[in-house]
Design goal:
- This protein is α/β, with parallel strands linked by helices and 349 residues long.
- The protein has two domains: 222 residues, Alpha-Beta Complex (Spore Coat Polysaccharide Biosynthesis Protein SpsA, Chain A), CATH 3.90.550.10; 107 residues, no CATH class.
- The protein has eleven helices and ten strands.
- Strands 1, 2, 3, 4, 5, 6, 7, 8, 9 and 10 form a ten-stranded mixed beta sheet that branches.
- Helix 2 links the parallel strand 3 and strand 4.
- The longest helix has 21 residues.
- It is globular.
- It starts with 5 loop residues before the first strand and ends with a helix.
C-alpha cells in the first residue's frame, strides 16, 4: 500500500489473515447514491468471510459522511469494513488499485459506489466458484435508466478462451463489477492499471485476467444493478485526453494478446476490438486530432481498413465516414441522433 494513503478505520477487519471475498468500492462524488449502494452491500446473505474496502478518492461532497452513517447503522459489519483514504484524487483505476493492494480475499470483486447489488449476489457467486473450481464467475446485470430497467444476460461459456473472444468482440460487457475473480490472477499481470487511465480501465485489465483463468462459472441471475441515471462521476465529461486513454487501453490488450503463443487465434476478435476502440476514440476527439489518431491505429493493424466492424447499421456508416475523413457529415449524423434521444427523453417525462 502506498505510504501516501491511510486506512482511517484501523481497528476494522483485523481478526484474520485471509477472507473468502474482498469487495472493492471506489468512492467519489456519489452522495446521491452511496447510501443505497452501501446498504445493499451490508445486506448480503454472505455473513462471514467477506470484507468491504471503501476507497475515498478525495471525494468533494458528503459521500464519506453518508457512508460512515451507514456503517454505524450496521455494527454487525464493523469488523468487515476498511475505509482507505487516498492522499490525492487519482481516478477510478488508481482507487481500485489502492483497494486491491490491501485486499485479503481469495476472490475479489468490484462494486461502483453509485450501483447496487441483490442480497444473494456474493454468496451465490462464491458458491459457484467453489462448486466449479472457477477462477472467474460472471453474473447478469440490469441497466437502470431513469424510466426503465433493462436486463442483460452475460453468459461467458465455461471455456476461458471463448470468454476472452466474447470480451474482445464486444458481445460480453467488459466490466469488473459483475465478475468474481480469484485474486491470484492479478499477480500474473506485469502491471494491473496504469496511472491516469480512467477510460476503458476495466477493458485494460479484464481480458488479460481471463487469459490466465483455468475455469469460468456463470450465474444466470441479474444480480448487479448498473446505474445509468447519471454518467459515472469519473467519466461523465468528455475531455480530449480520454481518447488517448482509450488508445492506451486498447494497445495494452492488443500487445498482450499478440505476444502470446496462441495470440493470432484471436485475430478476428482483435480486429473487432480495435474497431470499437478506434470508434470510441474518434467520437471523443476533436476533428483536427482525428487523422493522427487514425494513424496510431493503422500502425501494426491486422487489417486496414478494418473489415470486422461490430456495429449496427448507423454506427457502421458513421465509422466509415470518420475513417475516410468525412468528419462534418459524421458529426452531423451523431448530433442528430443525440437530438432525437433528448427529444424522446423529454416525451417520456
Amino acid at each position: 500500500m502506498s505510504k501516501t494513503n491511510s486506512i482511517i478505520s484501523p481497528n476494522s477487519a483485523q481478526t484474520e489473515d485471509f477472507v473468502d471475498l474482498s469487495v472493492l468500492v471506489p468512492v467519489y462524488g456519489v452522495e446521491r447514491y452511496i447510501r443505497k449502494s452501501a446498504e445493499s452491500l451490508f445486506a448480503q446473505t454472505l455473513k462471514e468471510g467477506i470484507e468491504f474496502i471503501f476507497v475515498d478518492d478525495c471525494s468533494p461532497d458528503r459521500s464519506m459522511e453518508i457512508l460512515q452513517e451507514v456503517v454505524s447503522n450496521h455494527p454487525e459489519r464493523a469488523g468487515q469494513v476498511k475505509i482507505l483514504r487516498r492522499s490525492e484524487n487519482g481516478g477510478l483505476a488508481a482507487a481500485r488499485l489502492s483497494g486491491l493492494e490491501i485486499a485479503r480475499g481469495e476472490y475479489v470483486i468490484h462494486c461502483d459506489s453509485d450501483d447496487w447489488v441483490e442480497p444473494e449476489t456474493y454468496e451465490t457467486m462464491l458458491s459457484a466458484a467453489r462448486e466449479k473450481e472457477a477462477d472467474v464467475v460472471v453474473c447478469d446485470y440490469v441497466a437502470e435508466f431513469p424510466r426503465e430497467s433493462k436486463a442483460f444476460p452475460q453468459n461467458p461459456g465455461e471455456n476461458p478462451h471463448r470468454m476472452l473472444a466474447r470480451l474482445l468482440n464486444g458481445t460480453l460487457h467488459c466490466s469488473l463489477w459483475n465478475k468474481l475473480v480469484r485474486r491470484d490472477l492479478y499477480s500474473r499481470l506485469p502491471f494491473v492499471w496504469e496511472k491516469g487511465i480512467n477510460m476503458w480501465e476495466d477493458v485494460m485489465v479484464l481480458p488479460r485476467l481471463v487469459y490466465f483463468a483455468r475455469g469460468i462459472a456463470y450465474v444466470p441471475r441479474p444480480f448487479y444493478h448498473y446505474n445509468q441515471q447519471m454518467a459515472s462521476a469519473y467519466t461523465r465529461s468528455r475531455k480530449p485526453e480520454m481518447a488517448d486513454q482509450i488508445h492506451r487501453a486498447w494497445q495494452t490488450v492488443d500487445t498482450f494478446i499478440l505476444g502470446r503463443p496462441d495470440g493470432m487465434s484471436h485475430s478476428s476478435e482483435l480486429e473487432a476490438f480495435r474497431t470499437r476502440a478506434l470508434y470510441s476514440v474518434l467520437t471523443r476527439s476533436e476533428r483536427e486530432r482525428r487523422p493522427a489518431m487514425i494513424e496510431k491505429f493503422r500502425e501494426g493493424a491486422l487489417h486496414w481498413p478494418p473489415s470486422n466492424i461490430p456495429f449496427g447499421r448507423f454506427d457502421r456508416m458513421v465509422f466509415r465516414l470518420l475513417i475516410n475523413g468525412h468528419n462534418r457529415t459524421a458529426d452531423f449524423l451523431l448530433s442528430c441522433r443525440e437530438a432525437v434521444k433528448k427529444l424522446l427523453r423529454g416525451k417520456s417525462r
